[in-house]
Specification:
The protein is of the alpha/beta class. The protein has 2 domains: 190 residues, FAD/NAD(P)-binding domain (3-Layer(bba) Sandwich), CATH 3.50.50.60; 147 residues, 3-Layer(bba) Sandwich (FAD/NAD(P)-binding domain). A hairpin with a 4-residue loop joins strand 15 and strand 16. Helix 1 runs parallel beside helix 9. The longest helix has 19 residues.
Amino acid sequence: MTTTAVHHHVLVVGGGSAGISVAARLRRRGVADVGLLEPSEAHYYQPLWTLAGGGRAPVAQSRRTQASVMPQGVAWTKDRAEHIDPDAKVVSTAGGTKVSYDYLVVCPGLQLDWGTVPGMAEAIRSPHASTNYLYDLAPKTWEQIRALRKGTAIFTMPSGPIKCAGAPQKIAYLAADYWREQGVLDDIRVVMVLPTPGMFGVKVFSDELERVARKFGIEVRFNSELVEVDPAGRQAVIADNKAGTKESLTYDLMHTVPPQSAPDWLKATDLADPANPAGYVQVDKHTLQHTRYGEVFALGDAGSTPNSKTGAAIRKQAPVVVDNLMSAMAGEPLDARYGGYASCPLTTSRHTMLLAEFDYSMTPAPTFPLIDATKERRDMWYLKRYGLPAMYWNLMLKGLA
């Protein structure tokens, strides 16, 4: 393999919502030499996958070409990062390129760790299980929901941080509401498996979600998680971590979500937090600057900030990263601050949504103070289905929101 060398004043690793947003903002601020490392040909608006899995949106609307969202003037290297040497200020790629940098923004997203739960990877490709965390399987989720008329449906969530932590619940509500409309909900046992002691980390939203779950008759298993699957026998082994017990449930439909962590290659770098086995990039939770390497910043799902891993969080992190990066270049103090804002638009039925917005203090941080966002609302559904995707494609990815 021939090794080639490239240099960029600012290198962005990852071309998802975080990387594209930051690159666009840097170009708007006049930074001439911005490189972006991303292997994918396609770019996805992943929040739409839940709606696709619930039969409320075409999955194809979530996909555009990566070239179509790449900011003008950004040098796109269509390759995958394999290692970062922050002392040498060099990123090595799978294709053999060594990309050196003056400043680095790390945002490669999370990896889905299917192999950590025995049988899970095989289960999602079997006839009775699926996941909305993969583009090609979200439509399968809807096919299974539509076909089920009786039996047991299980919806699982893993322990540890995951992207869009509300997604494992959203699909359960969408499915239950569909079965209610079809008049078959009473014939279906709906089991939701949550690793947490409550429905949500903010009490006012947790209370509303408890009400929603009761309305649909959903059996919620708290402090529990899926630890093994037998796809052939349709057996899901659920561990109650508080009681220290396990139970095997037979399922007719299962929507499952894998444990998630930083990419393996990133875990092996000196940028990872040595105290966290998940391998997130160790940054100051307010400035988003690396705690040991001043020329390195990180945002999005692979950062160590203790907020929910959502696109809404990225929308608030991107301007902070760019402001502080510009300050670092100028040798000035880093004054921009990220307060931990995250938003989880929770679909609570096929026509309603609960917009949970909060920050590091884990108290509500509403964008629309005149609207009671602590309750499920029909107007919020239209925001989820149409408003947020439009803002994503037309404003956020262009560095305008």
